[in-house]
């Protein structure tokens, strides 16, 4: 059987832990430092298998105090492949469920049916191996270890069979020995029985003497009783007389006082303080009359102060909401008036500005249709047409210039001959001047020659250049065609431009040569016209609303029969309404005061009537008490009142007595039975008789005391009944000891026989299997384990592989070898206990931490062998050991924090 999932909701230090899944491994490794819950996990596994112990959450050591319940679950995989789920909870009572193959088994606190072959004590002692179990081998005898492993493994204490048999035999010898030597229990009991029989004879004689003294004591008690009864009776009579004499005097005084009352029935109907009450009522009646008069005056005064509304004022108050509404609307009306006036002024200004712009643009005032045309003018389109016209005109002018230039280049330029004449004439003049020796003439000749020659040369060069730049006729025709197209396009743009300003009296030259300033003027005029139209429309709407408000106000004023200026009348009505509201508030306050005054008057009248009636009732009763006179009635009332005070005083004295009715009954009984007791002489005689009886009683008491002292001394010795009882108890104990001794001898023989049978049946297989484990764990050093009988008892023997003779295992063996042998025998014992049943998981806690490297490797091989058929839970707090196991078993540790 393997555990492949643990779910811990609350157990010990673990609360609401995530499920521990995938535990379905051959070896499950738990790693954690000390106090992290490794021991808790083992006890959790044991609780899953066997239930809770103790089965009380108040006593259970792993009940979390902050949650106060245990809740755990596990999923199991049985050896036959069946899966099962276990749920256990410890609340006020333990609960448990086992779910398998769609079946639900209520476990309560019972063990799982799969673990019934192993008791919980065996599981805790055998299937849980800690490092402490190996350490303890150093301080124990090996014989004890042998017995634990090979015999009494099912006992909770795991005691040696030889020790148990020896203890039983020692206990039986302590009860009886065949030789008769020694101080055994049966011999001691028989000596005690002989002594008790001798004591019984002495007790019989003492019993006879005690009976005689008891008879005399009975007689004395009878005499004492009779004298006591007489003394008590006389004392009671004297006591009653002394107690009841004052009580009797009070009763007689009370009776005489009650008889002195005059017309007691009528007196009791009057108030206790009638004179004061009568004066108070008279004073109250006078005060109430005065208060009622003042109240009536105040009511009259308040009624005179109430303002009486006219019909017109009532109508104004009824229309309060409408008046307030129209008063609030006066601001709106004034606002509408101001808006209309403002917009009318702005409209007037816009009209003047439009006329000014039209005069500036067209030298005349424009009227309706022209203004509409200007207003509908598309400025963007006009601007685009104007720019298009100007662009085409510019292109046409440029084309005409190019054409003119081409025409000039094609002319036949001739060089002027005059320049050549000037040059020749200058040369002649220069020569003539030098020849004629005229000073200025050579200079003039030179200048004229230079001018003529230079101009002639320049003309020749220009002619040559123009000849080189001359264009062809084809280029001229192409340019002439472009000019024609531009002229047509210019004409179209001109028509479009004139058409867009159609309806606006602008000259054509102005339209065609319109600059940005003129266009801005048209745009401004267009904007002014748009504003003029919008503001006129808005002013008309506001004026319409104003007329509606004024008409509604006029109709409302007519309902109030008011004519005249609406606003002034409305303000007057508002002022009147405010004044009327104040008067209404005053009236309401006066009405509330009047209501309170009338209510107060009603209360005063009711009180006056009540007090007057009470006063008349008292006066009438006083007249009856005084035979028609109120003053005499008051005097009789006061006399009766004094008698009543005396009765109260007597009653107070009587109240000091408890149980008055019982005292009255006792007084009546005493007066009828023993009337003499109230006579003073008789009372003194009774007291003397009591003293004589006291003397006689004291004599009887002294004699009784002497007898009781003698009886006490005799009774201190042991009685016959006690002796008989002790004798019977000793006889019974003697019989039980004999039976117990026989049982102990029989039990020792039965245990010895059972131990021998068990060893014969189980030890061979256990030792054979343990030999295989021991050989594996010692790496083949030891071959077999034997059990050999010796004079001192059975002894475990081991044989080395290279040796023929086995040797007995003693404490002289090395610690490591003893640990390996103990582990092998323990594991073999588990296999034997699990034979033909579910193989339960085994738990190792820090088992290998003290072993050297070689033994550790061998032990890991052993664990690998065991884990093929049995799940192993390994707990350690050492990281190096956890890493070693992870590497060997290809598993991952579960860390506990």
UniProtKB/TrEMBL annotation:
SUPFAM superfamilies in the cross-refs: P-loop containing nucleoside triphosphate hydrolases (SSF52540)
Record keywords: Coiled coil, Membrane, Transmembrane, Transmembrane helix
All residue ranges annotated as the YhaN AAA domain in the record: 1-203
Keyword Membrane part of the UniProt annotation: yes
UniProt keyword Coiled coil present: yes
Stretches assigned to coiled coil: 158-213, 469-496, 563-717
Gene3D superfamilies the record matches: P-loop containing nucleotide triphosphate hydrolases (3.40.50.300)
Transmembrane intervals: 415-434, 440-462
InterPro entries recorded: P-loop_NTPase (IPR027417), YhaN_AAA (IPR038734)
Signal sequence coordinates: none
Pfam families with a match to the protein in the record: AAA_27
PANTHER family: DOUBLE-STRAND BREAK REPAIR RAD50 ATPASE, PUTATIVE-RELATED
Protein name: Uncharacterized protein YhaN
